[in-house]
Specification:
- It is a single chain.
- The protein is of the alpha+beta class.
- It folds into two domains: 4-267, 2-methylcitrate dehydratase PrpD; 275-394, 2-Layer Sandwich (60s Ribosomal Protein L30, Chain: A), CATH 3.30.1330.120.
- It is built from 18 helices and eight strands.
- Strand 1 and strand 2 form a beta hairpin.
């Protein structure tokens, strides 16, 4: 009987653009557009510039572009940089239900890097590769049951290399056997630790997705040249699931394969904050709009959340911007003082703002009854200094249909201007009609 890794490789190698339902193509395009915007926005940040400088220094002479900077470098360097840029400010896509996978930041950067390296790759081919990578990666993430994070691994750093390798292998035209090798190699390139969440070294969180993207280029490129990896890397005795996870479900690897497109589970963020904060931020914004109070009027806030949110995201004194975006109390407090959708709101002045910091300390995160790991809804209760009390429950707070153009503009206008942002968005809307991707990322 053929094992799960081989079955996934056979499926991914055979998937074609013509096989994709329109709804899946639309979801993939939205995620691609969203990721490009996140990369452009992320390119201006100080930690991103460190990685960009490294990529330019170590990968000169290539044809793959660093988004937002425009520099052409070798494909591994571009994948490293763009993967880190996409996750540089908590703006990239995820899935619902959660799978510990970031569809945009770990699959688009390596795929785009390979497409530009090869030259003449169409937009439709990029979309198909993106879907193939995510069909495999998201299933792997679901199979982990999030228990890789329970062991202290940052999930996208562990699942990301698989999706990245599959997408790159797809664009390189690898057959099922070599696709299997690419997946097998990727398993030995997975990593990323959650120690940053304890309050120190937050820049490394962004690097995890860059390294996952870079790993995909390496794995697929080696496989294309005949390098081999274990054909049971996912399900084997010393394979990914048994080594990285405390519990897992092998059946999830191939559940619905070829019938259900899990790429359609991709969702986009409205705010530049960790996904766990979205519902609470949306709730306080809605309550503020409905009742007209200011952040200074608030005496106390209570936010319900799952166990993960209580244990990992109830950060009352974030030490840097990364931890601030990871902190539900800080994100809620900032949302009552600034425009929560704008990346510009989350700067060093916000981190030191005495009103925001004082309100952060008055936000409590309490357990939601019977909420699982993937439940991201929150009930927010706000008590004002005059004694009034308001309450609202929000299930997700994530981006809704029709909001992507506004987000794209907010993220890219600083680099491209309003008109440049509009032109790029319009062209990306017709990505499937592009006969080449060499133009993407070139300075105007």
């Amino acid at each position: 009987m053929v094992g799960e890794t081989i079955r996934l490789a056979e499926y991914a190698a055979g998937l074609r653009y013509e096989d994709l339902p329109k709804a899946v193509i639309a979801a993939a395009k939205d995620a691609i557009i969203d990721t490009i915007a996140a990369c452009i926005c992320g390119s201006a940040l100080p930690w991103s510039r460190i990685i960009i400088d490294y990529a330019e220094r170590t990968g000169p002479g290539g044809a793959s572009r660093i988004l937002g900077r425009g520099t052409a470098v070798q494909a591994p360097a571009a994948a490293l940089a763009n993967g880190a840029l996409a996750h540089a400010f908590e703006l990239d896509s995820l899935t619902r239900p959660g799978a510990g996978a970031h569809p945009g930041a770990t699959v688009l950067p390596p795929a785009l890097a390979i497409a530009q390296q090869q030259g003449g790759i169409s937009g439709g081919s990029l979309i198909a590769a993106f879907v193939s990578g995510n069909e495999i990666m998201i299933r792997i993430g679901r199979a982990t049951g999030h228990t890789n994070e329970a062991r202290g691994f940052h999930a996208p750093g562990t699942t990301g290399p698989f999706g990245a390798a599959v997408a790159c292998a797809h664009l390189l035209g690898l057959d099922a056997a070599k696709m299997t090798n690419a997946i097998g190699i990727a398993g030995s390139l997975a990593g990323g630790l959650l120690e940053f969440a304890k309050g120190d070294g937050g820049m490394v969180k962004r690097l995890h997705l860059g390294r996952a993207s870079e790993a995909g280029v390496l794995a697929a490129s080696l496989a294309a040249s005949g390098f081999t990896g274990p054909r049971t890397v996912l399900e084997g005795q010393f394979g990914f699931l048994r080594v990285f996870c405390t519990e897992f479900e092998v059946a999830e690897l191939t559940k619905g394969l070829g019938r259900d497109f899990v790429t359609a589970s991709t969702v986009l963020k409205r705010y530049p904050v960790h996904a766990t904060a979205h519902a609470a931020v949306r709730a306080v914004r809605d309550l503020q709009t409905e009742h007209g109070f200011t952040g200074g009027d608030v005496e106390a806030i209570t936010v319900t959340g799952n166990k993960r949110m209580v244990e990992r995201h109830a950060i009352a004194e974030p030490a840097d911007l990364m931890l601030a975006q990871y902190s539900i109390p800080f994100c809620v407090a900032l949302a009552l003082h600034r425009e929560a959708r704008d990346p510009e709101s989350y700067d060093e002045s916000a981190l030191t703002d005495p009103q925001i910091r004082a309100l952060t300390r008055r936000v409590r995160i309490v357990p939601e009854v019977e909420s699982g790991h993937g439940a991201m809804g929150s009930t927010v209760s706000i008590t004002l200094s005059d004694g009034r009390r308001f309450e609202k429950h929000v299930e997700s707070g994530l981006l809704e249909p029709g909001e992507l153009p506004d987000k794209f503009t907010r993220l890219t206008r600083g680099a491209l201007g309003e008109s440049g942002a509009a032109r790029l968005f319009a062209r990306l809307q017709k990505l499937e009609d592009e006969t080449s991707l060499d133009w993407l990322g070139k300075p105007e």
